């Protein structure tokens, strides 16, 4: 059998106080890059969204090194997504006794890190498993329509006697 081995680890940040659009413009720059390159990009970008994303990337890499025992040089960011979270709504008092609504959007950020060395290991094992599987001859099964009892008993249902349309009042 093929050994199932985990090659991806993620970190999730929820209810981060910023707009999803502002976080997406930073996330789009780091998606698919290596860990070292991502850190350099996040340190040099002038956006406020870089700080929580930097912490999440660092957390995802720490999870990968702890859970998988992988090296930081082999890690890439395979998936990074930003979803909208809840909106915090407040009311600010204004002139003449009126109120002005204030909406503070939040977002959920997910960073998925993949270990490329483990990916190659799993692909080699999968190819080896596939070669062994193709060498073994398959037993042919009879189709379902070729069974011994070809004819089955049919029962007749009458709509008047079996609670059909006319029983309802």
Automatic annotation (TrEMBL):
Gene3D superfamilies according to UniProt: Ribosomal protein L22/L17 (3.90.470.10)
InterPro entries: Ribosomal_uL22, Ribosomal_uL22_bac/chlpt-type, Ribosomal_uL22_bac/org-type, Ribosomal_uL22_CS, Ribosomal_uL22_sf
GO biological process: translation
Subcellular location: Plastid
GO cellular component: large ribosomal subunit; plastid
GO molecular function, one term: rRNA binding
UniProt keyword annotations, A-Z: Plastid, Ribonucleoprotein, Ribosomal protein, RNA-binding, rRNA-binding
The protein's role, per its UniProt record: This protein binds specifically to 23S rRNA. The globular domain of the protein is located near the polypeptide exit tunnel on the outside of the subunit, while an extended beta-hairpin is found that lines the wall of the exit tunnel in the center of the 70S ribosome.
HAMAP family: Ribosomal_uL22_B
Family: Belongs to the universal ribosomal protein uL22 family.
Subunit and partners: Part of the 50S ribosomal subunit.
Protein name: Large ribosomal subunit protein uL22c
Record lineage: Eukaryota, Viridiplantae, Streptophyta, Embryophyta, Tracheophyta
The gene coding this protein: rpl22
């Amino acid at each position: 059998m093929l050994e199932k081995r985990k090659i991806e680890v993620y970190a999730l940040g929820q209810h981060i106080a910023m707009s999803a659009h502002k976080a997406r413009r930073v996330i789009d720059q780091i998606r698919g890059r290596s860990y070292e390159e991502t850190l350099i990009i996040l340190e040099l970008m002038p956006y406020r969204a870089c700080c929580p994303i930097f912490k999440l990337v660092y957390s995802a890499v720490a999870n990968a090194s702890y859970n998988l025992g992988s090296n930081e040089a082999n890690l890439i960011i395979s998936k990074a997504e930003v979803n909208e979270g809840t909106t915090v709504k407040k009311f600010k008092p204004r002139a003449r006794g009126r109120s002005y609504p204030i909406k503070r959007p939040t977002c959920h950020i997910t960073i998925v890190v993949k270990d490329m060395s483990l990916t190659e290991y799993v692909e080699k094992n999968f190819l080896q498993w596939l070669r062994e599987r193709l060498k073994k001859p398959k037993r042919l099964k009879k189709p379902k329509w070729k069974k011994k009892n070809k004819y089955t008993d049919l029962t007749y249902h009458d709509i008047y006697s079996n609670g059909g349309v006319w029983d309802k009042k």
